[in-house]
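Hello Y.,

Per our agreement to keep a running log of every chain we model this quarter, I'm adding this entry. I've kept the format consistent with earlier entries: sequence first, then predicted structure.
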Amino acid sequence: MNDQKRTSNEAPLKDVIDRLLKAYGLDSKMKELDVINGWEEMMGTAVFNRTKKIEIRGKTLYLTMDSSVMRDELAHGKVIIIERVNERAGFEIITDIWFG
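Predicted structure for the entry above:
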């Protein structure tokens, strides 16, 4: 029977992957994808169905909506949307929203 013990340089796979993503600068991109994929959960089905394109460039969230009424409503709640997105990301991933 081989009784090998963990050495101090061994780490859980999740920690190793997190360090790799951070080392290659991909951790923020993964958070961006998490925010985009969680858009319906954060904003609800009605907003999700009217959102035609969503992307994050720099610290700005770009939303393309197919309803001018929905776009105007969201523009009034811009601060709340920024808070929700940043809360989901776990850090300040966006500071502004552009509606198209």
